[in-house]
User: Fold Probable nicotinate-nucleotide adenylyltransferase from Oceanobacillus picturae.
Amino acid sequence: MKKVGILGGTFDPPHLGHLMIAEEAREKLELEEVWFIPSFTPPHKADLGTTADDRMKMVNCAISNNPFFKLNTIEIDRTGKSYTIDTIKRLKEIHPDHNFYFIIGADMVEYLPKWYQIEELVNLVQFVGVKRAGSTLDTDYPVIIVDVPSVDISSTDLRQRVKFNQQITYLTTERVQAYIKENHLYGN
Ligand SMILES: Nc1ncnc2c1ncn2[C@@H]1O[C@H](COP(=O)(O)OP(=O)(O)OP(=O)(O)O)[C@@H](O)[C@H]1O
Ligand SMILES: O=C(O)c1ccc[n+]([C@@H]2O[C@H](COP(=O)([O-])O)[C@@H](O)[C@H]2O)c1
Assistant:
């Protein structure tokens, strides 16, 4: 079985926190690849100011220099609300020889009780939790914990910085910064 990590996210925009947790999980769990899956409509977030197309292209910019990282557009191609259970069921049909590890930050670990059809989902995929400032990794669900450095970066902070003309130089990659600038995202 091929061990594949999944980092699902809104990626509005992608940042170094995303890349760091994906790489730490890859190394520590000996994953062959990590697939970045941008959601089309996130299950639990209000209207976004960016399109799925922009978020997908920024993910491509962010992961371009890591040969183990791949973009997967299954949720964008499906459109509609991006429930993880639908994604995992389909991925398992397409790749019966893969074992999937779904990487989530502690904020999402806390939110697990509210995920759509969570009781079934935990039997279909292995969750991997990583620490994140402001949340705990305590949960009754089966989650493997991978120890990562605490990196207090969020997409919310990046959007705010761009809006107020503050720099995001060491918070995301140069290619993502250039994409934001060229496409005038986040009120820039
Ligand atoms: N700095 C971080 N440390 C640990 N986990 C993170 C970090 N940033 C994001 N994650 C995790 O990555 C996944 C995708 O996150 P997402 O794309 O929503 O970014 P975000 O920074 O949480 O965005 P926003 O601030 O808009 O809510 C989630 O499971 C989230 O918990
Ligand atoms: O399926 C659900 O109910 C569900 C609820 C919350 C989050 N998720 C998934 O968890 C990942 C991180 O979510 P987010 O919104 O923090 O980017 C992303 O792939 C979401 O689709 C999924």
